[in-house]
Amino acid sequence: MSGCAAKELSNFKAEGVKKAAFDLGCTEEKVGYKEVSESQVTVTGCGKKATYNQRDGSWQTDSVKSQ
To answer: Which of 8, 15, 26, 50 could in theory staple to 61 by disulfide, Cβ–Cβ 3.0 to 4.6 A?
Structure first.
């Protein structure tokens, strides 16, 4: 993993997990995530899945789907 990618995942952990937990209706402890690219993360939790993209300095998703 490149230094930049590690920085983005660290950034997601610090800023995106709380948003993902809210969007998925989960606690932060039940949210799992995996890097897709330097600016994209797939998130799962509580039977739902979402993809987050880093845009304009924040993590955003277009939709949350049931798994």
So the answer is: 50
